[in-house]
Inverse folding.
């Protein structure tokens, strides 16, 4: 069984609640490698939680990346649940937070 390592984050909420990978997850080798912001985020917060992550301009960049094992959709509203469906159709393990 492959261990999930590369994570992409799709941030749907406001910038006061940005996703942060726990220290336990980091110690187990999990890495956020791509981030897509659905809404505007102040420039100083863009990479504050995940300094090594690539900021992508659309969800397709996550779908097309075969190295992404898991997608975390953070704080989606009811109208943004289609994002979850897109990731599942792309065979990405998807978690909603």
């Amino acid at each position: 069984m492959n261990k999930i390592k590369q994570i992409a984050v799709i941030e749907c909420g406001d910038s006061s609640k940005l996703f942060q990978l726990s220290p336990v997850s980091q110690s187990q080798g999990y890495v956020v490698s791509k981030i897509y912001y659905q809404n505007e985020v102040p420039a100083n917060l863009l990479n504050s939680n995940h300094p090594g992550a690539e900021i992508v301009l659309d969800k397709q960049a996550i779908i097309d990346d075969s190295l992404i094992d898991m997608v975390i959709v953070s704080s989606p509203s009811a109208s943004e649940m289609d994002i979850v469906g897109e990731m599942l159709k792309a065979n990405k393990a998807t978690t909603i937070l």
Remarks:
- The chain has three helices and five strands.
- The mean pLDDT is 86.
- The two ends are 24 Å apart (CA to CA).
- Residues 50 and 64 are 21 Å apart (CA to CA).
